[in-house]
Amino acid sequence: MLLRSEQILRMFRFTAIIFIVTLPMTTAASDDSRPPGDVRLVLQITIDGMRNDLLYRYGQRFGPGGFRYLLDSGTVFTNAHYQHANTETIVGHTTLATGAFPADHGMIGNVWYDRDSDELAYNIEDPAYPPLPSRSKRQIGEQVDPAQRLARTQGRSPASILAETLGDRLKAYYGGRSKVFAVSGKDRGAVSMAGHVGKAFWLSTDSGDFITSRYYYDAYPAWVGEWNAERRAESFGDRQWELLNELDTYLLGHQDDREYETDLRGYGRVFPHRYAAAGSPILPTQVIVSPAGDRLTLSFAKALVHAEGLGDDSIPDYLGISFSGLDAVNHFFGPSSLENEDMVLQLDRTLEDLFTFIDQTIGLEKILIAFSADHGMAEMPEYMTELGFRAGRLYPEDIIIAANHAGKVLFDIEDIVKFYYRPYLYLESAKIEAAGLDTDNVQREIAAALTGQAGVALAVARAEIQAPQTTPLLQQIQRNFHPVRSGDIYVVQSPYWFNFDKGPVAAMHGSPWRYDTHVPIIFAGADIPSRVVHRPVHPVDVAPTLSALVGNDRTRLVTRRNFARGIVSR
Ligand SMILES: [Zn+2]
Q: 113 and 194 in contact (C-beta within 8 Å)?
């Protein structure tokens, strides 16, 4: 799927990232005063869709060993914001893993227009590497994830990721002896963190198994086969997701039943949520939309740590774990639902289980933990309206109709829109050229016509995106711009407006606004000091900071200026 022009870009980007990410490690190697082996495992935990305030809204009911372990013993950054505009899963994960902006790592959205194939492309799709079958008879589940549904094949690889990850650099630096793995409920959550030379496993919504692709393996390791043979997702059939605590202890217990929440094939809008029967095609998806999916992810990660011997020698290993459940729950029930509240409280237990396991297996003092999220979350527009805010829903057809209308009225061109997939609009360049019009001018005029439509805060044309920018919003859009993949016009929805397809997804992230950019960043374990930092920082600096800390560099996190790069540059 790589374009020839992209291959050249890719070589160029790799050089840049090698320099940035390895700089602290190579410095450390030359004046090492600390014995090797201090950090045996870098554990990068990502909670899909964990808006920062969710960590505090229910915080007084956390147990001692989950979120509280991070908040009380770690260095906690309370003011961490993504600096790119399109706050989606693959964009955030890849930024966390590489320390690059989407403009450089190329993951500009979950879906973009592939000019080579003339079709929309799913971010990590790669027909060359089909999934490695996990069962002799393949079950076909129901795919609810709208981005994945657009994928033309089931093949997956990191080939489209144009930068290297921390795990990639560890492999290269330690002569291939670092073990690098990533596990997630979502394919894109695992592939992005595993990088180019690590191994990725994700939960299949077809089978409920943890699977991989032929990019990573020709045959499953025995321990994966054994884990999958237990059919753990199936075991939830006909069981139910029940509240962890008594209803009257919940902040949001009064608003469980809201008509704008999604009932996922009989899963219901209120507690208890009943899973479909074993063998049902929707069961693996329902399991992901509950605390059970994260427990499966943890169970698989534990099996991995044991079987692959992570952290068992002085060479630092890397494990990325991305928990996908909270994002799924947010999409169907909203981030201010009883489901969200129970999900966060249950995630707290899952994390406590993880930290206890890691402490017993390797020792928390030898683990460097980086905790964050790939994006935040917007409330449902109907909920915001109930509270008195102005909000609404913007659908793809609204934008396409408005842009086509402008194309006809202003330039007498029929159907000027080639593709729209949020946030990018791609125009029919051949029609514009055939009409003898200036492409930049047409893009500008269409963008101007879209700006101010109901739910559209701003539409920005390509030429303007590429010009030097001084406002924060336009800089966010610019950091998201890749010349080959990005569209001709970037459409920014108004604050609190939903900007996605009509369908089961009832709440959506993806905007450049604060509720979507604000995420936790916490470093813990190893010799990280307990501290709360309120100054603004950025997730793009997580990977460079980890690389500085995992190297034999005595300088403490809190005195380093790793974060300066994100504040002063670009
Ligand atoms: Zn999402």
A: no
